[in-house]
DNA-binding transcriptional regulator YbjK
Amino acid sequence: MTAPRRPQRARDPEARRAALAAASMEVIAENGVGRTTHRAVAARAGLPLGATTYYYPTLDDLIAAGLRHALDGLRSDLLAWDERLRDATDIAQTLTDLVREYLADRRQVRIEYELCVAAARDTALRPLAEAWMEGLPEIVAATFGAEASRNICALLDGFILEALVTGRELDAPRLTSAIRRLAA
Amino acid sequence: MTAPRRPQRARDPEARRAALAAASMEVIAENGVGRTTHRAVAARAGLPLGATTYYYPTLDDLIAAGLRHALDGLRSDLLAWDERLRDATDIAQTLTDLVREYLADRRQVRIEYELCVAAARDTALRPLAEAWMEGLPEIVAATFGAEASRNICALLDGFILEALVTGRELDAPRLTSAIRRLAA
DNA sequence: ATCGTACTTGTACGTTCGTACAAGAGTGGA
DNA sequence: TCCACTCTTGTACGAACGTACAAGTACGAT
């Protein structure tokens, strides 16, 4: 009766780090950066509280890991975008389609705008947010040129923000024709 | 010695409501919606903790009051924008100037994008956020027409977001020429 | 003058938070 | 085999949180 039985799970430190980062990302998407806690992340990952501070010493580290994880997801998305755009005949139309598909998973979208707002307040997050903002323009620059690309991406951000706030669908035809105007 | 002396300040309930709303707005701008607390707002307003729950029963009420207060400020700004735009000869240029001036006070900007992200997560804030998003298009619609106005405003949102994230100045010439393209 | 109501204020309660840490359990090398 | 190290887990602590509330104060109506 004296020995407290404590069954341990299989050891896999890197999987735990990743699981915590993924869980952190999900909690941020659902509750926002400001309401993300060690306990919520641990529960989401199915791990004990102590695991969070073992792998990410402070809460800021844990949140940064969640944001970084989200950006890694975006980066692989962007590779797919790049391929689709290279093969496209009507680039404006294709870009619109991509944005519409991107908007299908609002959780992913939410977390990236969450990052923007957080970076506006906390300069430590700024490099991360800038990396996000410049990912798409770099890809589109190949076809539209540097300046037009940045304009088009700003336009996309505005359209995405509107869809995010209103919860409505993307106004695809309007976006396509606006892209064409900026590309000319 | 038995009587606990408790000096009371002059009574002015409406001023208190307003002071709390203003303080709430400031705390939101600095810490974000998720890190806004009764105590922080009370301290900022220079009022005791109890005053917050007296005027705004729950924390959500207090935060909503802060957001509403920020939007009231925007609304009066928009009236000024309207006037400036009516008198303008070069509307694209004037709009760019207005955005640059708007960006001078990042606190105001931050809180409005904070509202957007919060509304994306909490549907209760959605009407407030939609009111914000539609304020400017309504004004510009007079000169550019409904569709072009919404496109231009989306573009502005994108430019503002970029400036917010990077902390850099607005790229004014690029914005002006992009507006012209969308207005054509 | 008295009384009811609206307002002010300090304090208290139970909860949740970030973080620290001790005690066990697995694992690879000597 | 045993040791040193890394990883796992439960628990603990002080601080801060949202909210409730009792006690006191001002003030308009009567």
